Amino acid sequence: MKRIFPSGMAFLVTVAFSLTALAQTTAPIQRRPFSGDTLGKNAVMCLIAKNMEVHGHRGIDGYANNTLASFKAAFDAGADTAELDLMITGDDQIVAAHDPIPNIKAERCSLHGKSLEKAALRHMSYAETSQIRCGERHYSEPRTEPIPLFREVFSAFKDYKVAGKPARLNIEIKYFKDQEQYFPAEDQYLDLIIKEIRQSGWSQDRFFVQSFNHETLKNLKAKAPEIDVVPLIWDARGALEAASKLGSRLVTTGWPQLTPEVVFGLHQKGIRVIAWTPNSVEELKWVIAAGADGVITDRADLFMKIRDELCE
Q1: Which superfamily is assigned to 9-85+155-310 in CATH?
Q2: Closest among 210, 193, 214 to 94, alpha carbons compared
Q3: Under the GO molecular function aspect, what terms does this record hold (predicted)?
C-alpha cells in the first residue's frame, strides 16, 4: 500500500495508548468490558473511527457470502471496501467463493435443489457453477444469490462510490499444496488472477491482494510488482515480522491480540494495520480503542452505528 496512516493518526494512537490500560504485548491479553469514559467523552475514539477503513467481510451479515447483493449491501451500509475470496472452476473461471466445496460454514447452496456438500467448484464447469444458488442458513426463507465471476464483481462496482469515493476491494486468495485437487498449479493460478486484475480497468489504489499463504503472495508480487500484497495473519503480535518479510506497508490481522502497543509499534515503522473480524459492539470498540487503521467485519452497519454514537 502506498498510503501510510492519515495525518494526525500517530498522535491519536499515542493518546489512545496513554489513556487505555491494556495488557503488555508480551503478557496474556486480558479483555474487559469497554468503558466510554476511558477516552474522555469519546473524542479520541470518534476521531480514530472516522479515519478507519471499513471492509465488508464477504459483504455483510444477512446475505449469502461473496455475492454481488452482499457486496452492494455492505457498500450501502457505509463500507468503503468489500472483502472477497476467490476460487477457480474446472474450466479456469475465477469466481467469488470462500470454500472449494459449496454448502459449508454459514452458507446453504444447492444446484437445482440438490445438495452440494461433496461437490468441489474445481470439479465443475462455470456453466454448472452459475446455476448454484446460496443463502444464509439462519434464515427460514433465505435470499438466494448466484456465485459471481470475479470479473462481474469488478464490472458491477467499477463506477460505484461510497461517500463520494470509489468503492474498493480486498481480494483474498488461497492456495494450499495439500489441497491441489481444488486448484490449478500455482503458477497458472496466479497468472489467471493477475490477468483478470489487469483487464479490470481498476486503478491500483482501489484494491489489494491478501492471503494467509505468504509464499504465494511473494510469487504473485514477483509476477506483478504493481499489485499491492498484504500478509493475512492471526496473531497481531507477529504483524511486524509478517509485513517486513513481504515488504508490505499494510497487514491484516486477527483482532483479539491487537492493542495500542502493537498498533503504535507498527505505525512507528510506517505500517498500517486492519483487524478481522470483530462483529460485536465490544469487539469493534476494542479495535477502535487500539487505534487500528481499519476493520474487516460482517457488520459494517454496526460499525457505522458505533461511530455515529461516539461522534455525537
Answers
A1: Phosphatidylinositol (PI) phosphodiesterase (3.20.20.190)
A2: 193
A3: phosphoric diester hydrolase activity
